[in-house]
Amino acid sequence: MAELKPKITGTGLTLIVIGSCIGSGIFITPSRIAGLLDSPSLILLLWIVGGLITISGALSYAELASRFPQAGGVYVYLREAFGSVWAFLFGWVVLTAVTSGALAALALAFTQFLGLVIPEIEPYRLPVAAGVLIITSVANVFGVQVGQFFSNLFTSLKVAGIVFIILCGLFVFNGESRAMYHTPEVNFATVQAFFLALTGVYWSYGGWQHATYISSEVINPGKNIAKAMIQGSCAVMLIYLLSNMAYMNVMDLDSVAASERVAADMMQEVLPGYGSRIMAIIVSISVFGTIAIYTMTAPRIYFAMASDGVFFSGLTRIHPKFHTPIPAILLQSGWAILLLFFWGTFSNLIEYVTFTEGVFLAMAALSVIVLRKKIQEPPGFRSPLYPLLPLFYFSVSVLFLGVGLYSHPVQALAALVIFSSGLIVYLFFRKRRKTLI
Predict the structure, then answer these.
(1) pLDDT tens-place string over residues 152-185
(2) Burial of 374: CB neighbours in 10 Å, binned 0-12, 13-18, 19+
(3) Which helix (H) or strand (E) holds 215?
(4) Counting beta carbons within 10 angstroms of the beta carbon of residue 142, is it exposed (0 to 12), middle (13 to 18) or buried (19 or more)?
(5) Residues of the chain with pLDDT > 90: what percent?
């Protein structure tokens, strides 16, 4: 019987971590942050804190990955710690909204930025976006090595592009620096604004957990998964810090806050006449790379669900030559394309349900503590500062989720509908499995 084969290298997995985090957010989010904080020093501190939160989560997940180097990652951790129903609901949310919705949004973003370079595609944005999803799906069908090649190529290109932006903002720009670093006045209003801004930064760092979904296909997983998640998270934090320093070196905070495309506006300031077009190319590459990674990683969750007998059995099929879960890949891409064509109707709801992924990510961090008590055998990698790091990541995630629930009470109903439908589907498959047995 065909099975998933370990062919992903440590370097390849590190690039997957980086590519999963860096999509289009770093080119847009800084303007929202500048609208809340009026101090370059506070803004840099904000991105450092967000990075440290991410690293605490990565260190916690690294222990879980070393203990369970299986396809599905977070799904497996939730199943082992809290039971199959919570694991299934995580996979259900990822399929119906989180990753599929992200793929639809990223595909549309890709066509938007590509349209700045090739205006002729503007009337055909939806077909082009669907074509991107089809191309990346087909590439991942032909083997995890092909998917890894796409990931390595486009993540390397996006990092090179961001390095180019940083160099332009910090060294090519020949004007006077607009960044005025100083010790800000700390009061209640400042703390409140800092926390609100941190919520956005927290989600900008999201995506690194995708590395766990393909654990069973990593060479020497006990060593490489932990190493890749830690190195990748640190690299993303450094890239985000330097990018913000570049933006604030060229543009004052009022200009950053007013900009809808801060990276493009900065590049236009440094390279008049060429900056916007160069920026559009860089963002297009960045978004395409993230699409390729999401298309590769998340289907392993649906494969794991089917392997446990709580989802369609056909999703367990592995191609005998390419060793890829083709039905799972096609299911996700087909649903993402469907969402793409109905994006105007469901975008707000999907955005909120995507936010609720934090429930499961927080629970997965907490499972480090649960599993240490349930399983006496030590894992290959142990999270340092136990239990402080997993508790810290869990607490921060729950706090940000609470803010989201308070801010979006109506959209929370969408999450409730998704969870309820997932529970019904789970019970159906459980009953069917018992009947077959």
Answers:
(1) 898 999 999 999 999 999 998 887 777 777 777 7
(2) exposed
(3) none
(4) middle
(5) 54
Using DSSP, how many helices (H) and how many strands (E) does the chain show? Answer: 20, 0
8 A C-beta contact, residue 46 and residue 197: yes
Mean pLDDT of 44-58: 94
Show the tokens assigned to 1: 């019987």
91-125, pLDDT tens digit by residue? 999 999 889 988 988 898 899 888 888 989 988 98
State both tokens at 302: 């649906």
Helix ranges (H only) for 68-187 are 74-82, 84-93, 99-117, 125-141, 144-167
The one-letter code for the residue type at 151 is S
**Averaged pLDDT for residues 364-380:** 92
Residue with tokens 């480090």: 368
Section 408-420 average pLDDT = 75
125 and 108 Cβ atoms separated by less than 8 Å:
yes
What count of other Cβ atoms lies within 10 Å of the Cβ of residue 191?
A: 10
Alpha helix (H) residue ranges in 205-274: 210-213, 221-250, 253-258, 262-270
